[in-house]
Amino acid sequence: MNKRALVVEDDYQIGELLKIHLTDINIDSEIYRDGLDGYQAAISKSYDIILLDIMLPSMDGVEICKKVRIKNGDIPIIMITSKSEEIDRVIGLETGADDYIIKPFSIREFQARVKAVLRRSQSSEEYSGVSDKVFSYDNLVVDTEKRICLKNGKRLELAPKEFDLLALLASNPGKSFNRASILNIVWGYEFEGFQHTVNSHINRIRAKIENDMASPQYILTTWGYGYRFNEDMKAS
Q: What are the residues whose beta carbons fall under 8 Å from the beta carbon of 122, sequence distance 6 or more?
């Protein structure tokens, strides 16, 4: 069965081209040209991936991404923008997008990005250093095979990159990772200049797993370097 994509793009020609390119890699797609209509489809229907233009009528792509992440934390999202400024890419990533692509783009690049995001979201071991499949620390459980995170027995909704980042740290307790290496490992390739995107993802993870973000127990800051999982947490 083909996968399903939601495309929210107000440019008719670009939307039709995206549909053709997705069909070529066995992905069916629905196209919405209004941001609010696209958002309503995103929360009421089932899709395997969402592609969002940033500039949209009624509701822009950034706002859609934020709201979808609240409703569905783990669906892969790619932001599409005609602007090349760094700020647009940073905003897209910091609001929970898994990747971005800038117009104009080649067919090969577009299809490769879509395949990569789907592959990373489905893979059970897509980061280096993970040998075991389940990591349990006190009341936190990270299952990399099922891609499930439990806190006090309750499942947490994590976006794909949030889960990958948490799994990377939890599988290497005590090991400090700098922001550049996290980007390279978790995102699969470097987002040069976007290292503060890691900070945003860390903050979102902490908000979900920590009892007190001001005094985190699980994910610690290695000052002047990066982040690490607390090696003093009791594994169970």
A: none
